[in-house]
Amino acid sequence: MNIVEFKDVTKIYGRKKAIEEFSFSLGENKITGIIGRNGAGKTTLLKLLSGFLVTNSGQIRVFEEDPFNSLLVSSNMIFVDDSMSFNPKLTLLEILESANHFYEKYDMKFALDLMEYFSLSREQLHRNLSKGMQSTFNMILGIASRSPLTILDEPTTGMDAAVRKDFYRLVLKDYINHPRNIVISSHLLGEVEHILEDILLLKEGKKLLHMPVSDLKNYGMGLRGEKKLMLEFIKSQQVYHKEDFGDQDLFAVVKNDFEKKTLESIKSQGIEIIPLSTNDICVHITNTKRGDIDDILSKNQFTGYNKKANQ
Ligand SMILES: Nc1ncnc2c1ncn2[C@@H]1O[C@H](COP(=O)(O)OP(=O)(O)OP(=O)(O)O)[C@@H](O)[C@H]1O
């Protein structure tokens, strides 16, 4: 059974289409990464999924219901992000107690053990915690809920490196012991990919791909060779990125839908095949800019910003 179904979903803020004709589904018990650059639409997608936002068009089903105003969805789902707000008078213990009351599978002992491990005092108020400690507490609240649909929106914001490491280990181990659907958004695939099974990649509100992380490794590849030869070869390919490499060569990132014999033929012509990391593949296929940061730097290094000329 699919836990989540999106069919042609569009969400517009003013004139901005944050999510556009988006369709995907999530089966049972997986860790899925929602990956995309800043502004790609990750948070909007997760808020639609959680029933916090209504669509402009299209259909969403979560546990076979429209998530908006659904008690079934809210009691089986937890949404964790760094802007969670609580009654300011409640202590951390009281917040956990109310979650324990609401969520059927809540593991209060686990939550309290984690609080102790991360040096969070039960008597503290949430608003008095540092940013990183708030994220840590929110993560404890979310993981201990054991919600069938656990949504973590950029959960590591503000956490230091050691806490991040513990966080990823905790999510993975707890998921193995208590399988459920965990959806994590991030703009850093490299940081989360070791705990993900599937990746849903967004670009400018649209779905670019949804596949097992292991398949993403072969989705794109780097090619380098003599410029003229390369330009001739890549003109019939889907090219995500190209840049000069020295005076003579060109480097390009292309979609990998080549047959084995084509690869052998290009190698024999002197084009080198360069394997890319999944993170590099994501960066290149979600790139929206023309040129790169070096172009801006080289344009500005001698002149600087001339206020008068620009007035
Ligand atoms: N409440 C809003 N009103 C108007 N525009 C919005 C609103 N929320 C989001 N947007 C716009 O919708 C687009 C998608 O935003 P969203 O927050 O979903 O992206 P994101 O992928 O989560 O970004 P980030 O990684 O920077 O958090 C952006 O262009 C953003 O400016």
UniProtKB/TrEMBL annotation:
Alphabetical list of Gene3D superfamilies matching this protein: P-loop containing nucleotide triphosphate hydrolases (3.40.50.300)
Listed transmembrane segments: none
Keyword Transport: yes
Domain ABC transporter: start-end pairs: 4-229
Xref: SMART domains: AAA
Pfam families: ABC_tran (PF00005)
Keywords: ATP-binding, Nucleotide-binding, Transport
GO molecular function, one term: ATP hydrolysis activity
Protein name: ABC transporter related
Lineage: Bacteria, Bacillati, Bacillota, Clostridia, Peptostreptococcales
